[in-house]
Specification:
The chain is an alpha/beta fold. The protein folds into 2 domains: 35-120, Sandwich (Immunoglobulin-like); 124-316, Rossmann fold. Helices cover 31% and strands 30% of the residues. The strands form 3 sheets. Strands 1, 2, 3, 4, 5, 6, 7, 8 and 9 form a 9-stranded mixed beta sheet that branches. Strands 14-13-10-15-16-18-17 form a 7-stranded mixed beta sheet, with helices on both faces. Strands 11-12 form a two-stranded antiparallel ribbon. Helix 6 (211-225) runs parallel beside helix 7 (237-245).
């Protein structure tokens, strides 16, 4: 992939701070937590809950805990936590409810948590988006040590562009942040005007220390449930490798990198360019079948297989990426933003 970003040392600094936070007790409270549940138009809903306790300075899940999921006070599913502490269930959920609850008993205590039922359409392409240095100029101190992250700031135009994309795509925020930052991350996303969509975090420090392995495993698991997960947005070679392994279209936001493509990766310098790329190629990117056929892994050979994919690849590989090669306007303004 080749290009190293100015954020190459971010992960190393992050996990040094995380280790300090854990040693100081910032990660020591056992808890029970749910992810946002995803409900499709036919009522099929996927629930995930997590039971956790401290193991030394590394957090670990609690196995064999019975978890009950309910909507509007009615139990709709149950599951037992696995060796990593996750309980996962699928159920048919009808009705207008937009929240659900989960409860469990372990270690002599009763736990309950609730969250959103996020509505998804099965015919839409799913876009995975990284957080740190992709949409957030992250303060690691605020992320790991402050009760509320009031320091990290959105990267220019990213809230507006993702809001625009959310009208035609399903979004997933996939990050190597440890799970104890989940509520803080959700609050930051909402506070800064990003679409309210599911956030997927790593389990603990041991997962995120090897980010390529973590993201590869996570995307592999997500693809088993969501076959239309076909586009990935990030900022590092780790993101690119993890997406490309799963035959996803790889879009990197790297302000210091040359604008263009490098093997299986398309590089942009701004979120404005990300927006314009989607706008210029919306007929392909919004169609799961055509987007899958046009993933970066297969686009090189698309001329033999698909005229549409060949046209998309021709656009992507336009010599020197002249202004207008991707249907960009001559102005850099984002007049489409309300």
């Amino acid at each position: 992939m080749g290009h190293r970003t100015p954020t190459a040392g971010l992960a190393r600094r992050a996990w040094l701070l995380l280790l300090v936070a854990c040693l100081l007790g910032g990660c020591a409270t056992p808890y029970f937590q749910v992810d946002e549940a995803i409900r499709f138009e036919n009522g099929t809903t996927r629930f995930v809950a997590f039971a956790q306790r401290q193991r030394g300075w590394l957090l670990g899940g609690v196995e064999d805990v019975q978890v009950r999921f309910s909507v509007d006070g009615q139990e709709v599913a149950s599951a037992v936590t696995d060796e990593r502490g996750f309980a996962k269930a699928i159920a048919d959920v009808d009705g207008p409810g937009d929240r659900f609850a989960a409860s469990a008993d372990f270690d002599g205590r009763s736990f309950r948590d609730e969250d959103l039922l996020v509505e998804w359409r099965s015919d839409r392409v799913i876009v995975a988006c990284d957080i740190d240095a992709t949409i957030s100029q992250t303060s690691l101190t605020a992320l790991f040590f402050h009760e509320i992250d009031e320091t990290s700031m959105p990267i220019e135009d990213s809230p507006e562009v993702l809001t625009k994309l959310a009208a035609n795509f399903q979004l997933l925020y996939v990050t190597a942040r440890p799970r104890f930052t989940l509520e803080k991350t959700r609050a930051w996303v909402e506070e800064h005007g990003y679409p309210i969509q599911p956030v997927v975090t790593s389990l603990a420090a041991r997962d995120a220390l090897g980010q390529t392995g973590y993201k590869t495993r996570t995307l592999n698991s997500l693809r088993k449930h969501y076959g239309n997960l076909l586009i990935g947005i990030g900022n590092t070679d780790i993101d690119a490798e993890s997406y490309a392994i799963h035959d996803m279209l790889v879009l990197l936001v790297q302000p210091e990198a040359p604008l263009g493509h490098d093997g299986a990766v398309i590089r942009f310098q701004t979120w404005t360019q990300i927006h314009d790329f989607f706008a210029a190629n919306e007929s392909v990117l919004q169609d799961p079948a055509r987007s899958r056929a046009g993933s970066c892994r297969t686009l090189r050979f698309a001329a033999k297989k698909s005229r549409i994919c060949a046209q998309l690849w021709k656009r992507i590989t336009a010599p020197s990426w002249p202004r207008g090669a991707l249907g960009w306007t001559s102005s850099t303004s984002m007049s489409w933003i309300a």
